[in-house]
Write a structure and sequence with these properties.
Blueprint lengths: L4 H6 L17 H12 L4 E8 L6 H4 L2 H12 L5 H8 L11 H8 L7 E5 L2 E9 H5 L1 H18 L4 H23 L6 E3 L8 H15 L3 E4 L2 H6 L11 H8 L4 H18 L6 E2 L6 H7 L2 H6 L2 E4 L4 H15 L8 E4 L5 H11 L4 E6 L1 H4 L21 H4 L5 E8 L2 E2 L14 H11 L12
Parallel strand pairs: 4-5, 4-9, 6-7, 7-8, 8-9
Antiparallel strand pairs: 1-3, 1-10, 2-3, 10-11
Helix pairs in contact: 4-8, 5-6, 9-10, 9-17, 12-13, 14-16
Length: 445
């Protein structure tokens, strides 16, 4: 039976807590946490919440008291014995993934501190701590802020407005799923925890996805929901591994080599199922061009997370594999940037027979609410002159590592609009890695 989402909003308690469980996160945070704990546990870092869309006045929408209450709630959470058993028994990739020492570490794990202040119509939210304790805040912080943002807006709607919004959202989600289903070669991972509408909507979208897509929905990134629905959880690593380790070295040659040192360390911990390259941290063209032969040969896949997906395959990945004598049809490309049914269909058909395409759909799976308000040009109560169509939509919110051992962390990205880091540090990194194949594109989420 579908939840009554309207009553859920109208009858919600205050304070409202978007996240109730430490397992309610992407699985790659646990695989990365083991790597960090194994090799870099004493490195001090700072993560920071970044709103790329300054037109979205987060601090005018989300109440600071309610945000602090939700963040403080996270500080009290611990993994339960049942959850520890689930993690300890994880053998998704046909082997026990974590040693006893790491399980003991998790049993005593608690999140590091946070710092929150307001700067104009935005919040300044930072997480300074040893890397293991700051890193885990990434998904929680994004999910909390995005959920509270929509929740606060929806409390300004009438019952009839809310009813129409959610009715439209249900229809839109089913239409999207059926459009995906129309191409049976689209194999999809759900990865929308970080910018989801809320946890209950996340559950609904995943349940509907399992019903409509069947085997085309190959898994979810969310640990809690994977265990709940007996699904395979998917996830490998994120940009932070390259960003932090790169900040720790100075020599340009060392910076280039560090990309592959991280891969070698990762490979020492995990089997083929987790060997997915994420090359766009310092731009994909140079990553593939400088990569050792054995890395391209032994790793199963790469993930395209920024830039032009067609150029990524046609101009970088397929030519490099071919030049090294590696059959591109033996390798997977996971496309994960702003996916909707139409673009996934175009990508799959374009690369069909020339490589293996897989897809990760995030925000547009769990928070495809843009443009659904029945009176889009009406002013939002308490936010005039802003209108519903301007603010009632998912936006590009990220939580990135910005500092490691007192040094700035940089992500260059294949799309300059997704780059992070101080201007000088970005320019210095561009001088090391080059700037080929960067494509400036609008960042939707």
């Amino acid at each position: 039976m579908m939840m009554n989402f309207v009553d859920r909003v109208l009858n919600a308690p205050k304070p409202y807590f978007p996240v109730w469980n430490l397992l309610d996160t992407d699985g790659y945070k646990i695989t990365m946490l083991y790597y960090i704990w194994k090799y870099y546990r004493d490195v001090k870092v700072v993560f920071e919440l970044i709103n790329r869309d300054k037109h979205i006045p987060v601090a005018e929408v989300v109440d600071e008291w309610e945000l602090r209450a939700a963040l403080n709630h996270m500080l009290d959470l611990r993994l339960t014995r049942t959850e520890m058993t689930l993690i300890n028994g994880t053998n998704v990739y046909h082997q026990r993934m974590f040693p006893d020492e790491f399980i003991t570490f998790l049993a005593n794990f608690r999140l590091g501190p946070y710092e929150l202040s307001r700067e104009g119509n935005q919040y300044h939210l930072r997480f300074p701590a040893d890397w293991p304790y700051a890193s885990m805040w990434e998904i929680y912080a994004m999910a909390i802020v995005m959920d509270l943002y929509f929740f606060s807006l929806e409390r300004r709607m009438s019952r009839s407005e809310l009813t129409e919004v959610y009715a439209r959202a249900v229809v839109r989600h089913y239409d999207e799923l059926r459009a995906i289903k129309a191409n049976p070669n689209i194999m999809l991972i759900e990865g929308g925890t970080r910018r989801r509408h809320n946890y209950d909507w996340h559950k609904f979208t995943l349940e509907a996805g399992r019903e409509i897509l069947g085997q085309q929905l190959t898994g979810t990134s969310n640990l809690r929901l994977a265990f709940k629905y007996d699904m395979e959880w998917k996830g490998t690593s994120g940009h932070e591994l390259q960003m932090v380790t790169n900040a720790l070295v100075d020599d340009p040659k060392e910076k280039i080599a560090m990309q592959y040192k991280v891969c070698a360390e990762w490979q020492s911990l995990y089997g083929p199922g987790l060997r997915v390259m994420l090359p766009d941290t310092f731009m994909s063209d140079q990553f593939f061009r400088n990569a050792p032969d054995d890395l391209l040969r032994d790793w199963a896949a790469s993930r395209q997370d920024s830039g032009d997906p067609f150029k990524y395959g046609d101009e970088i990945v397929i030519p490099e594999y071919t030049k090294r004598g590696i059959d591109p049809c033996s390798k997977i490309i996971i496309f994960s940037d702003g996916n909707k049914a139409k673009i996934m269909d175009e990508i799959e058909r374009h690369f069909h027979g020339r490589g293996i395409s897989r897809f990760l759909q995030g925000t547009f799976f769990t928070n495809n609410f843009g443009g659904l308000h029945p009176n889009p040009d009406a002013c939002v109560p308490g936010l005039a002159p802003l209108t519903w169509k301007e603010v009632y939509k998912p936006f590009s919110l990220v939580c990135k590592v910005v500092e490691a051992s007192g040094r700035p962390c940089v992500k260059l990205s294949d799309n300059p609009a997704k780059a992070t880091g101080p201007k000088k540090a970005v320019e210095e990194s561009l001088a090391v890695f080059g700037a080929d194949h960067r494509v400036l594109q609008e960042v939707l989420v």
